[in-house]
Specification:
By secondary structure, the protein is mainly α. It has one domain. The longest helix has 37 residues. It is globular, with a radius of gyration of 21 Å.
Length: 451
């Protein structure tokens, strides 16, 4: 179809899934590279306190981004449903309503970060050596929130109509520009955390501008015109019904890791920097599972709209199988030579030792996240976002955090102890999600809802 849009309800399913998921993998890799660039460059040009400041502050920014991600995914699900059902007028209403919602959201988040950055970072027990740079980084990045939010929204719209290639290109441009600017501002001008923040804001502004121009010049079944922003109550209620659970889920997940981040902060600057470094590494190592889960959500949504339920269910099996293969490879790597992974981001031996210690326990999760991500991605595509949210929330607050503090506060505890919490959480969430899906399928209610 024109402009890269694809009808995911037709053709060979495995081939369709792989071709649609591949741009997701590349885009997520580039996005992970984008997020890791700050740590990589500061790790090579700056002291440990700067690395800690950027790692912790970017974690805070990531949480703000995740707060909006659930609603952008809800737009993807609804657009996918209506695209599969050929209801193009409803797609335009969804777009107009989401533009209205996210304009207000961006302004509120910008205000909060500008005026409460110090309080938020203090709650996270940011090391004293890193607090000033962390505050500066957060406040500068606050001006880029509107670009981040609208970029994610435009990408979600395109993916809902089966175009996963254009978002990949946009992310590529942004990542390349971010890398160049980081090297210049940090390596040449020695701006430290402020330079990392400026690089982030500028690159995001450029990428969202290119994305808007792409939509305006294309011949899509929809348009993006800010003068036509309109609030449709019925559409907004559907977006909130689907998006609120996802938004809470996507926010709770990093919050649970940030709570454990405070535990690593109390162990020392090296442990704090190592924990932040591993979060960047995980963005790469978990991207195959995450990418297939995202692609699966759209495939399931379109086939749900087209009433092709068996095709959606089979896509779940394919997604788990392919992403599990990558999980095995990453698990073996981190069990055998974890130092090689951490040293990519930092040459500080104390950070490498602490990070390697963490990976030896955490890496078991690479075998489990293909199931966690794909099961929830499938349910999200079917509009059952509430279960995904509840399941992940229980896992985060009743398992991950208590387990992390239990193991992490033992006598002589290291990051290895904290890492145990992740795979333990995954085992329980996989079990509950599997039981839920099988129970619904047995009662012939798995595909009984339409968002």
């Amino acid at each position: 179809m024109e402009n890269g849009t694809k009808d995911l309800t037709q053709g060979n399913l495995l081939k369709t899934l792989l071709l649609f998921a591949f741009p997701y993998i590349v885009a997520n890799f580039l996005q992970a590279l984008y997020g890791a660039t700050d740590i990589f460059v500061t790790g090579h040009f700056c002291k440990s306190s700067t690395v800690s400041a950027v790692a912790l502050s970017s974690y805070l920014m990531q949480t703000i981004t995740f707060l909006s991600t659930g609603f952008t995914v809800s737009a993807t699900i609804l657009i996918g449903n209506y695209f599969g059902a050929k209801k193009y007028d409803d797609i335009q209403k969804i777009i107009n309503t989401t533009l209205y919602i996210f304009t207000i959201f961006s302004l509120i988040m910008t205000f909060l970060l500008l005026f409460f950055a110090s309080d938020l970072l203090s709650l996270l027990k940011t090391p004293p050596e890193a607090i000033e740079e962390a505050i500066s980084y957060t406040r500068y990045c606050a001006f880029g929130i509107i670009f981040i939010v609208f970029f994610n929204l435009i990408s979600s719209i395109l993916r809902g109509v089966g175009n996963s290639t254009a978002p990949m290109v946009f992310v590529g441009i942004s990542s390349f520009l971010n890398l160049i600017l980081n090297v210049i501002l940090i390596g040449y001008f020695n701006l430290g955390a402020v330079g990392a923040a400026l690089a982030t804001v500028i690159s995001q502004a450029v990428s969202v501008t290119i994305a808007i121009l792409y939509i305006k010049r294309g011949n899509f079944v929809f348009s993006i015109k800010f003068r036509h922003i309109k609030y449709y109550k019925e559409i907004a209620m559907r977006i909130f019904k689907l998006g609120l659970p996802l938004s809470l889920q996507d926010t709770i997940m990093p919050i649970s890791f940030m709570v454990l981040y405070t535990l690593s902060n109390s162990m020392g600057v090296a442990e704090s920097a190592a924990y932040g470094t591993i979060t960047r590494l995980n963005a790469f190592l978990m991207l195959p599972a995450g990418s297939f889960a995202m692609a699966l959500t759209v495939v399931a949504a379109q086939n749900m709209g087209a009433q092709k339920f068996d095709r959606a269910y089979r896509a779940l099996g394919y997604s788990i199988s392919v992403s599990f293969f990558f999980g095995i490879v990453f698990f073996i790597w981190q069990q055998v030579i974890p130092e090689s992974a951490v040293s990519i981001f930092s040459k500080d031996t104390s950070i490498i030792d602490a990070g390697s210690d963490f990976l030896r326990s955490f890496s078991y999760d690479y075998l489990l996240v293909p199931f966690v991500f794909c099961l929830h991605g499938f349910l999200n595509g079917l509009g059952r976002t509430m279960f995904s949210s509840v399941n992940n929330t229980i896992g985060a607050f009743l398992i991950r955090i208590p387990a992390g503090f239990y193991f992490g506060t033992m006598a002589g505890a290291t990051l290895f102890n904290i890492g145990i919490a992740a795979p333990l959480t995954s085992v329980i969430t996989i079990t509950s999600a599997g039981i839920y899906i099988l129970a619904l399928k047995k009662k012939n209610k798995l595909f009984s809802t339409m968002p």
